[in-house]
């Protein structure tokens, strides 16, 4: 009888809302072994000999943490937000010396959120108007959410490919910024409300009809199947992958 070795996993940001949930999920998974937990101020060292690290910290710290892993040849599954084009370029640069290392950057690990982004991308070319509303718990430090930014970018690219122009909007007077942020030309609005976890609506409009695509994460366990799929798949995906959909056959 052959027994497969368990994947050794360490978690950075382990004391946080997501990190602590990942620790429980990894401990419960029979094919994973939680070997190390790290948080702010801890020496990451050799990350307790982990094969793969899960990183859920803060946007200002994630690049340095991921670099630390890459330099030690350790695969990384990243959920932390704030990965703009400049940070991704630095990451790709760091990986050139470690071509066998896999890094997954996933703006959202919930399967429904991944499908929401895909459906929004598909719908984009059919509608003149679109707006993204993201709604989160008030402990969230970044706005707009990584999911909303990614959704808007995907919609923006799909609109451009379809030859659609700017979304119609006659606003010329908005001293308080009531029309929200713009990401790749798409209006994005952020709500912070006690009691919420992570939610998003994508509103599409054209003459005489509206399409609303909505996803709700009511509990952080919603992210765990995706995180575990990331841990199990990351070694087989060397280089940088943005979006768990590429591990799920959705690309
Ligand atoms: N991709 C996805 O599916 C999801 C992504 N997220 C993202 O994950 C990130 C974390 O979210 P959440 O768990 O709610 O946040 P929390 O604030 O609850 O957790 C972050 C943890 O990281 C710690 N931390 C801060 N700085 C460092 C550092 N330099 N090194 C290691 N740890 C550090 C914090 O410590 P301290 O509190 O002492 O500062 C805290 O314990 C956010 O960017 C969020 O947007 C969240 C949910 C799902
Ligand atoms: O901070 C959160 O909670 C979440 N962050 C991610 C984001 O910014 O998109 C994913 C999810 O929305 C929960």
TrEMBL record:
Keywords: Amino-acid biosynthesis, Cytoplasm, Diaminopimelate biosynthesis, Lysine biosynthesis, NAD, NADP, Oxidoreductase
Gene3D superfamilies from the UniProt entry: Dihydrodipicolinate Reductase, domain 2, NAD(P)-binding Rossmann-like Domain
Main localization, broad class: cytoplasm
Subcellular location: Cytoplasm
Binding site for NAD(+): 13-18, 39, 79-81, 106-109
Role noted for this protein: Catalyzes the conversion of 4-hydroxy-tetrahydrodipicolinate (HTPA) to tetrahydrodipicolinate.
Record-listed (S)-2,3,4,5-tetrahydrodipicolinate binding positions: 137, 146-147
Pfam families in UniProt: DapB_C (PF05173), DapB_N (PF01113)
Record-linked InterPro entries: DapB_C (IPR022663), DapB_N (IPR000846), DapB_N_CS (IPR022664), DHDPR_bac (IPR023940), NAD(P)-bd_dom_sf (IPR036291)
Enzyme Commission number(s): 1.17.1.8
Family: Belongs to the DapB family.
NCBIfam families: dapB (TIGR00036)
Active-site feature positions: 136 (proton donor/acceptor), 140 (proton donor)
Catalytic reaction annotation: (S)-2,3,4,5-tetrahydrodipicolinate + NADP(+) + H2O = (2S,4S)-4-hydroxy-2,3,4,5-tetrahydrodipicolinate + NADPH + H(+); (S)-2,3,4,5-tetrahydrodipicolinate + NAD(+) + H2O = (2S,4S)-4-hydroxy-2,3,4,5-tetrahydrodipicolinate + NADH + H(+)
Assembly information from the UniProt record: Homotetramer.
PROSITE patterns on file: DAPB (PS01298)
Species per Swiss-Prot/TrEMBL record: Nostocoides vanveenii
Lineage start: Bacteria, Bacillati, Actinomycetota, Actinomycetes, Micrococcales
Pathway entry: Amino-acid biosynthesis; L-lysine biosynthesis via DAP pathway; (S)-tetrahydrodipicolinate from L-aspartate: step 4/4
Protein name from the UniProt record: 4-hydroxy-tetrahydrodipicolinate reductase
Annotated ranges, domain Dihydrodipicolinate reductase C-terminal: 112-248
Domain Dihydrodipicolinate reductase N-terminal positions: 7-109
């Amino acid at each position: 009888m052959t027994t497969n070795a368990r994947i050794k996993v360490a978690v950075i940001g382990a004391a946080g809302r997501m990190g602590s949930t990942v620790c429980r999920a990894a401990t419960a998974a029979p094919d994973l072994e939680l070997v190390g937990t790290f948080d702010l101020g801890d020496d990451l060292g050799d990350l307790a000999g982990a094969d793969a690290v899960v990183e859920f910290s803060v946007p200002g710290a994630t690049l340095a943490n991921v670099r630390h892993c890459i330099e030690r040849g350790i695969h990384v599954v990243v959920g932390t937000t704030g990965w703009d084009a400049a940070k991704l370029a630095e990451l790709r640069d760091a990986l050139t010396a470690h071509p066998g290392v896999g890094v997954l950057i996933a703006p959202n690990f919930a399967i429904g959120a991944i499908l929401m982004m895909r459906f929004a991308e598909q719908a984009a070319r059919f509608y003149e108007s679109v707006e993204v509303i993201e709604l989160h718990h008030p402990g969230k430090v970044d706005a707009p959410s990584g999911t909303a930014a990614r959704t808007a970018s995907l919609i923006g690219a799909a609109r451009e490919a379809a030859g659609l122009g700017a979304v119609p909007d006659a606003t010329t007077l908005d001293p308080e910024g009531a029309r929200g942020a713009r990401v790749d030309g798409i209006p994005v609005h952020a709500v912070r409300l006690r009691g919420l976890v992570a939610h998003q609506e994508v509103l599409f409009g054209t003459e005489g009809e509206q399409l609303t695509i909505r996803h709700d994460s009511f509990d952080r366990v919603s992210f765990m199947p995706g995180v575990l799929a990331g841990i199990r798949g990351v070694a087989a995906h060397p280089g940088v992958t943005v979006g768990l959909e590429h591990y799920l056959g959705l690309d």
